[in-house]
Description:
One of its GO terms (molecular function) is transferase activity. With 206 residues, the chain is of the alpha/beta class.
Amino acid sequence: MDGTPDARRLPKLLVVGFPKSGTSTIQRALEESGLVSAHWMWRNRPVGRLIYDGWFSRGDPLALLEGVDAVTQMDFCMPSQGVNLWPNLDIALLLTIRRLYPDCRFILNYRPPQATESSFGRWNTLVERITESDIPGLPRGRGGRPGEIARWIETHLDAMRQIFAGDPNFLELDITAADAAERLGTFLGHEIHWWGVANANPDGKR
Length: 206
């Protein structure tokens, strides 16, 4: 891949927003379009752990993701397993990846923060897990009161918009927009063959 430290097949696209904001939809869209994509897990290991292991052991956050075209969800929050990883919210790490891989593309998946907060609350034990964990921008014990998750999300979105402002390798993608698939395909230079709603909440709502 041009512009990377070596010629291995490593991710050239990272989704850097929140879960329950279209990560599964983007994952399926990429897979249906012929790309190899890692979502949450890769080869039975949390993607977030692979990213941090690659960074601290080899000086390259993407080193352990060989064979992957894209990463659609990096976070892994399972406090019962002693695992709480959010590289998608680690701005210093994201800037390091941009420096090491200047051709890597970043997608900030977007939906209204209030809708994402509502989806968090309806997805299994997600709110319970995040309130038990220290997460960048959301200290342990926060996230259980109305509006706290939405505020956390909006702050990260604003930070990413400022940091990547004017970067042609950055796309804020509203996953609810009618032209989302077209915008994704144009950004990637790759035709998208499927778009819809993947991994909906058990009640059938986003």
